[in-house]
Amino acid sequence: MDPNERGSTNMERAKMFLGLTPDESEAVSRLAVPERQAGEGKSFFDAFALAGIRVVRVEPGLVVCSFKVPPRLTDRSGNLANGAIANLVDVVGISLEYGKGLPMIVTIDMSISYLSTAKIDDELEITSKRLGKRGGYTGTVVVLRNKTTGEIIAEVLKQILCKFHLNLPLLEFLDGDSLEVRQQTTFLCARDTFRLKRK
């Protein structure tokens, strides 16, 4: 078989696997996404990805939350999607350092070990602990576990940077609803901070 033919066959299979089924396509088309101005209420991202997180306990250097797996965050197999897991542990991990009026906080490195899966309606516990802090850098460990069985779903080591202030135009840019916008901005902020440190 010609290598080009094999490559196109693999590409077609990948497209078919990643493509939406008619039911999935219809479900997406029914989503109502209201327009929103920057800084006004919850964003689509907050409502879709973060709704349902409940804070159980907060202590210095420790945040414990619970979360029931909703159908909207599952993959085709009915498991909590890896992207949703990454998002949940990132948000809960950053919450250790968050404070109103403090400089913006960004994750600069995150290593996730996916150890098990969670199904729809599983009750999860997300625990974030501060490992240490030096200057504007904080090291944290976040553990996502099934509350009923105690099984660890994911374990995360993160590095957080929180020692710089943003100018107003960048803050307005951050209020966009797009996860892509937030991720790109996080990368730009971290990159600019490293550039400042090198001078």
TrEMBL record:
Main subcellular location of this protein, as a coarse class: cytoplasm
InterPro entries: ACOT13, HotDog_dom_sf, Thioestr_dom
SUPFAM superfamilies named in the record: Thioesterase/thiol ester dehydrase-isomerase (SSF54637)
UniProt record, GO biological process: lipid metabolic process
Pfam families named among the record's database cross-references: 4HBT
UniProt keyword annotation of Acetylation present: yes
Gene Ontology MF: a single term: fatty acyl-CoA hydrolase activity
UniProt keyword annotation of NADP present: no
Stored CDD domains: PaaI_thioesterase (cd03443)
Subcellular location(s) of the protein: Cytoplasm, Cytoskeleton, Spindle; Cytoplasm, Cytosol; Mitochondrion; Nucleus
Residue span(s) of domain Thioesterase: 78-129
GO cellular component: cytosol; mitochondrion; nucleus; spindle
Catalytic activity from the UniProt record: a fatty acyl-CoA + H2O = a fatty acid + CoA + H(+)
Assigned keywords, A-Z: Acetylation, Cytoplasm, Cytoskeleton, Hydrolase, Lipid metabolism, Mitochondrion, Nucleus
Subunit and interaction comment: Homotetramer. Interacts with PCTP.
Protein function: Catalyzes the hydrolysis of acyl-CoAs into free fatty acids and coenzyme A (CoASH), regulating their respective intracellular levels. Has acyl-CoA thioesterase activity towards medium (C12) and long-chain (C18) fatty acyl-CoA substrates. Can also hydrolyze 3-hydroxyphenylacetyl-CoA and 3,4-dihydroxyphenylacetyl-CoA (in vitro). May play a role in controlling adaptive thermogenesis.
Sequence similarity: Belongs to the thioesterase PaaI family.
Protein name as annotated: Acyl-coenzyme A thioesterase 13
